[in-house]
Amino acid sequence: MKRLLALVLLCLSATRAIAHPHIFADTGLAFHFDAEGRLAQVEVTWAYDEFYSLLVTEDMELDQDFDGKLTEAEQARLTGFDMQWIEGFNGDLEIVQGDTDLRLSGPRDYSAVLRDGRIITTHFRDVEGASAENPAYEAKPYDRTYYTAYDVTLPVTVSGREGCRSRVRMPDLTKGLMAVRDQLAELDADTNPDEAGLPNIGEDLASIVIVTCGES
């Protein structure tokens, strides 16, 4: 009965799959500084929406008793399911310091849990090229195609350096941009926004996490 209910929910939600975005992820960031005051690591948390989480667990045949808990073996299978990045993929995250684009490593030390019907994953990325001078950073989690929508609704924290603060700047949804977003939502699942005349729409709709330290 529980499996039947899950399949019914998938069918009822099918219309959601024809529009952009397809996946929604509440996002959190933790900025870790080294002893010299340079940004050294960023910790990324993605909490996927219930529908996508259900799709993943069904596809991977996890939580077959539908009690919302994973066995140790299931936990091991889930961990890393979203960390198999193709070459050139930037992890849907960009960080700049002033005019410098910082280099980010691939994901490491990743984890995944199923909690309250949502898959929540965390991974670390090493940061290269940061300077202890002018420590002002902008981090932008986004998918240029807007296949995945990242909302910075989870905590943003800073560790390893005193006097730092963070804030989230939401996208400026002007009338024109809202119209573009509505146009994007009408695209079918097989249409790339670039091909529809909406290049890099994900960046236009992205939130920006701003971290400043000291007097910056």
Automatic annotation (TrEMBL):
Signal peptide residues on this chain, from the entry's feature table: 1-19
> Which controlled-vocabulary keywords does the entry list?
Kinase, Signal, Transferase
Example GO molecular function term? kinase activity
Q: Does the keyword Transferase apply?
A: yes
**Domain of life per record:** Bacteria
The record's section on Pfam families has: DUF1007
What is the name of the protein in this document? Polyphosphate kinase
> Origin organism of this chain?
Sulfitobacter alexandrii
